[in-house]
Amino acid sequence: MSANFATLVPVFNGTNWAEWSSAMQDYLRSQALWQLVKGGNPRPEVQVGSDGESLPETKEHREWDNRDDQALGIIRLRVSPEIKNQISGNSSEEFWQALENAYSKPGASLLFGDFQKAISFRLSGSSNPEPEIGKLNLLLERLRANEVDLPEFVKAMILKGPAHCAQRKGY
């Protein structure tokens, strides 16, 4: 596993599903593990002998199990302990599905997380503002898509920043 893993994939905290799942999917793809997680590469069937007894598992079974364990471990490493203890799944696919079912639909905590990010937005002032404004626009669009439509003056206050608003009021 790459040392950059921790910088590429944030820790999932329950409010950052969109960002986390996208980064995790990209990382798992880069490790050729995403097909296991999404169910596109099922575990090989256990062969049954002529007597009806299961034959011993093959090297192919053990390799699949090891890759699934690797994928599950990677996912669990970037999930907060509080969430990890609440979600169950014996395979990477089951664990991912449980996370997706619990957190992919925007609930109050996800929307509040996006709102917090939006109101704490600050332009760095040291580089081209286009990427930073793009991130803010993405947050505002996600909020709007979930029926949290901020008035234009609130968006303007976010873009200007608290110091500018305080100066104007004389605080």
UniProtKB/TrEMBL annotation:
Which segments carry the region annotation Disordered? 41-62
Its protein name is DUF4219 domain-containing protein
From which source organism is this entry?
A: Tricholomella constricta
Cite the source lineage.
Answer: Eukaryota, Fungi, Dikarya, Basidiomycota, Agaricomycotina
